[in-house]
Amino acid sequence: GSNVLRMSSGIQIKTKTATQKSKTCSPASQPKPSDKLNPKTIDPFRAYSQPPSAFAATYARGGIPCRLVHGSVKHKLQWECPPNTIPFDPLLITLAEGLRETKHPYTFVSKEGFKELLLVKDAAEKVIPLLPRLVPVLKAALAHADDEVFGRGLDALVQLSATVGPSLNDHLKLLLTNLLKRLMDKTYREKVTVALQKLEQYGGK
């Protein structure tokens, strides 16, 4: 009886290697020249590869209801449904988390998506209840070492202030240390000064 067994197990092994072979030979897995630019082909087991951020993972899952449309002159966002029909919780917070991204298209989608959500009619009443969760996320962008991330965080903060006005005032003290730190940096001095003036303007006395 052991002979039959050996044969059948031999057959199993054979079919296994055959399927593996067909996998590796399929044209899809042959690296195309353009694949070098495709992040998917980067070896996930490399020591320095980082797990995808929450924003990237949500975007990949289709959890962010807008996509980047490449224009010849400038990119724009395409929403799957009108922004005013989308619940701000958790999308606005997810987009704010995306401000810390450093890769395209996440950088554009998060920045533009955040801005466009805040332009929705009645945005203020949708945003104000989220401030306690939103402000720490913006703080993380403002505390980020990457200048571009800081810049996006600063723009988002000014947009937020324009939307909610004085409601932001109680939360600003959380953010001021990060702003004042960059105020010492001459690259950002002017930008931060303008932002602080706007915050003052929108926040009232």
Structural features:
205 residues, mainly alpha, Serine Threonine Protein Phosphatase 5, Tetratricopeptide repeat, two-stranded antiparallel ribbon, 9 helices, 60% helix, 4% strand, globular
Question: How would you describe what is shown here?
Answer:
With 205 residues, this protein is mainly alpha-helical. The protein has a single domain, classed as Alpha Horseshoe (Serine Threonine Protein Phosphatase 5, Tetratricopeptide repeat). The protein is 60% helix and 4% strand. It is built from nine helices and two strands, in the order H-H-E-E-H-H-H-H-H-H-H. It has helices at residues 2-25, 54-60, 88-98, 106-118, 123-127, 131-142, 147-164, 169-183, 186-203, and strands at 66-69, 76-79. The protein has a two-stranded antiparallel ribbon. A hairpin with a 6-residue loop joins strand 1 and strand 2. Helix 6 runs parallel beside helix 8 and helix 8 packs antiparallel against helix 9. The longest helix has 24 residues, at 2-25. It is globular, with a radius of gyration of 24 Å.
Q: Evaluate the radius of gyration.
A: 24 Å
The rough form would be described as globular
Tally of helical segments: 9
Q: Report the β-strand fraction as a percent range.
A: under 5%
- Please give the CATH class: Mainly Alpha
Looking across the biggest beta sheet, what order are the strands in? 1-2
| Level-2 CATH architecture | Alpha Horseshoe
Mean pLDDT: 82
- What composes the largest sheet? 2 strands, antiparallel
Order of helices and strands: HHEEHHHHHHH
Amount of helix: 55-70%
Query: Gap between N and C termini, in Å?
Result: 92 Å
Low-confidence residue ranges: 13-36, 41-48
Described by its quaternary structure, the protein is single chain
- The CATH topology corresponds to Serine Threonine Protein Phosphatase 5, Tetratricopeptide repeat
Q: How many structural domains in the coordinates?
A: 1
Structure summary, number of beta strands = 2
Q: Indicate the structural class.
A: mainly alpha
